[in-house]
What we know:
Blueprint: E1 6-11, H1 15-30, E2 34-35, E3 44-49, H2 56-70, E4 75-80, H3 81-85, H4 87-91, E5 98-100, H5 108-113, E6 122-124, E7 138-139, E8 146-150, H6 164-168, H7 176-187, E9 193-197, H8 212-219, E10 227-230, H9 240-249, E11 256-262, H10 266-272, H11 278-291, E12 296-303, H12 310-322, E13 327-332, H13 350-375, E14 379-384, E15 392-397, E16 402-406, E17 415-423, E18 429-433
Parallel strand pairs: 1-2, 1-3, 3-4, 4-5, 5-6, 8-9, 9-10, 11-12, 12-13, 16-18
Antiparallel strand pairs: 7-8, 14-15, 14-17, 15-16, 17-18
Helix pairs in contact: 7-8, 8-9, 9-11, 12-13
Amino acid sequence: MIQFKKVAFYTLGCKLNFSETSTISRLFEDAGVAKVEFEEKPDIYIINTCSVTENADKKCKQLVKKALKINPEAFIAIIGCFAQLKPIEIGKIPGVDLVLGANEKFNILEHLEKIEQKNEVATVDFENIKNTKEFVPAFSYGDRTRSFLKVQDGCDYFCTFCTIPLARGKSRNATIASTLIEAKKIAELEIKEVVLTGVNIGDFGQGSDENFLGLVKELDKVEGIDRFRISSIEPNLLSNEIIDFTLNDSKRFVPHFHIPLQSGSNRVLQTMRRKYLRELYAERVKQIKSLREDCCIGVDVIVGFPGETDEEFMETIDFLKDIDISYLHVFTYSERVNTTAAKLGESVPMEVRRERSKMLHILSDKKKRAFYEQNTNTTRTVLFENEEDNGMMTGFTENYVKVKTPYNETLANTFQKVKLTEIDRDGLMKCEII
């Protein structure tokens, strides 16, 4: 067995990946291996990959190359979604020593114990993810003011553009009782905000007598956590009951929803195999705003989906202009092997995709500025983070307005009542601490 004294991690992709990396890092620390920064010449690098990230293979190769430049003798393990989908290709990258599928990444220490020397590439367990029922709890801790709590994994939807069901398997979760145990562990760590994360968190409890609303209601009772934030939830799973509870009755859930749209064209939505039409999406936004006009609503949009015409793209633009949302996450469609979308419709030229992306980014900036202007001169509560940038520090209000103030170490990881005064040139909100 190779002896490791120092380990470094690099995480690509979503909040779920960050929660899992943090949990895996604690396994190493419990085994006596010190966690260090990427540049601090560790004995082993662990790269947690993402299949959604554009050019995932290119990014993976770049990170391996960077790691070997820092320490040519370092052991390199690749885990995560891209590792699950492309194990053979990753195993051929010069310098890679271990590739673990989704089922085995949490057993990485056991696999490392079996390896006698570097440069004997081992790839483990890539066949069973489709049928796995195992749910491994995870949460992030140690590098952020907030914690990402994994409440669900996998997805049964098979949208035509997505590889996540192939990378993570079927939808599954722990029980509410087990999830509460993890939340209470976080509460003991003086973390003020918890973000609920997963692949399709609204699907929590599928096949049982539990559901996401029940989970939210029980988490709301957990003492020691001031804020809960829902990371992303499908519009067809965001029921009026969930909206009503979080905005009217909850003590701890904040007025912020992130709701994927993907397209404002019903034909494109159907081709994507989404489980709703734009009319339902508009209803959800209307319901939220009827209860809390100041609620922040974020939106995911994909541009350049195969067969998307100029007229259908303009449907998306016009739809987003007309509904009261706060910001966009814009994704430029990129072809994925083993997805149905790659065989659908005529490919949209890359220069057209880029132009459409640019237009949506401009719209996002306008929506965000309008939302910030709506919040100007209001009193909010900000959770400040402990990072200094040119003498300033930032934090977020309960409704996700990013605020800045001169750096003061004593404010880090504290809630402060503030008056939001004006939007600065960098797009952040200035404030006065009350």
